[in-house]
C-alpha cells in the first residue's frame, strides 16, 4: 500500500524545493493537500508524477489535467497571494488547485462549465473537508463572472494561445493573472499579467507544458 503522505513529502523536497519554490505557505499547502484524492482511483498512483497528467474529459471533449507539481507550485508562488484575496481558477484538476489555494486563506472560486465534472469537483472538495471554502461557477471559461470589483488573482490551469482579454478585464487594480501562454508545446511559457490602473503588463516566467483551452485558441489566419 502506498504511503501517500511520504510521497507528498518527497514531491515537496525533490520536485518543488529544487525548482525555485521557496514560499513556505505554498510548500506547506502542497504538503498538506492529498493530491491523489483528486485523481481517478485507477490513476491515484500517478498523481505525484513530475509530468502533466490528464485526469478527466468534459462532454465537449476538452480535458482537465494536473499540471506538473513544480509548474503549478511556481505559478501559485508568482501570484503572491494574500489572505482574504479573491482567487479565480479556470480548468482546475477537479478541485485540487482550489484545495491548495484554500490553505493560503484566500477566497477561491472555480470555473467548471461541465456539469458532471463540476459535481465530481464538489465531491472531491467534500472529501478534502473544503465544501464550504470553495465556490463553483458553471459558466464558460471566457464569460463575465460578475464580480464588480474584480478578482485579485486568476490562475488558468491550462494553456491559452492568445492574450486572455476577457479574463484580464476582470482583474482588480493590482490584480495578477498567471497562465501558460502558447499552444502547450515546447515554445509555451508561463506568463504573469499584472494590472495597474488601466494598464496590464505581462512578463514571461519559465517554460511549461499544458493542455490548451478552446476558449482562448488563436483563430487560424488566411494563408495566401
UniProtKB/TrEMBL annotation:
A Pfam entry, by short name: PCMT
Domain of life: Bacteria
Xref: InterPro entries: PCMT, SAM-dependent_MTases_sf
GO molecular function terms attached to this record: protein-L-isoaspartate (D-aspartate) O-methyltransferase activity
GO cellular component entries: cytoplasm
Keywords: Methyltransferase, Transferase
GO BP: methylation
Family designation: Belongs to the methyltransferase superfamily. L-isoaspartyl/D-aspartyl protein methyltransferase family.
PANTHER family reported for this sequence: PROTEIN-L-ISOASPARTATE O-METHYLTRANSFERASE (PTHR11579:SF18)
Name by which UniProt lists this protein: Protein-L-isoaspartate O-methyltransferase
Organism, as annotated: Saliniramus fredricksonii
Lineage: Bacteria, Pseudomonadati, Pseudomonadota, Alphaproteobacteria, Hyphomicrobiales
Amino acid at each position: 500500500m502506498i504511503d501517500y503522505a511520504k510521497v507528498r513529502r518527497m514531491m515537496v523536497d525533490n520536485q518543488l524545493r529544487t525548482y525555485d519554490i521557496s514560499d513556505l505557505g505554498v510548500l506547506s499547502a502542497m504538503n498538506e493537500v492529498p493530491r491523489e484524492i483528486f485523481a481517478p482511483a485507477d490513476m491515484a498512483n500517478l498523481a505525484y508524477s513530475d509530468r502533466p497528467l490528464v485526469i478527466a474529459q468534459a462532454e465537449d471533449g476538452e480535458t482537465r489535467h494536473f499540471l506538473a507539481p513544480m509548474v503549478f507550485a511556481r505559478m501559485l508562488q508568482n501570484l503572491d497571494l494574500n489572505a482574504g484575496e479573491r482567487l479565480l481558477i479556470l480548468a482546475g484538476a477537479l478541485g485540487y488547485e482550489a484545495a491548495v489555494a484554500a490553505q493560503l486563506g484566500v477566497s477561491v472560486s472555480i470555473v467548471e462549465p461541465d456539469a458532471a465534472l463540476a459535481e465530481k469537483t464538489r465531491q472531491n472538495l467534500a472529501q478534502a473537508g473544503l465544501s464550504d471554502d470553495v465556490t463553483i461557477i458553471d459558466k464558460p471559461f471566457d464569460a463575465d463572472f460578475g464580480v464588480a470589483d474584480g478578482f485579485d488573482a486568476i490562475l488558468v490551469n491550462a494553456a491559452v494561445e492568445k492574450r486572455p482579454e476577457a479574463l484580464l478585464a476582470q482583474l482588480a487594480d493590482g490584480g495578477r493573472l498567471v497562465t501558460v501562454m502558447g499552444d502547450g508545446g515546447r515554445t509555451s511559457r508561463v506568463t504573469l499579467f499584472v494590472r495597474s490602473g488601466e494598464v496590464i503588463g505581462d512578463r514571461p516566467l519559465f517554460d511549461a507544458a499544458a493542455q490548451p483551452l478552446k476558449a482562448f485558441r488563436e483563430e487560424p489566419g488566411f494563408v495566401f
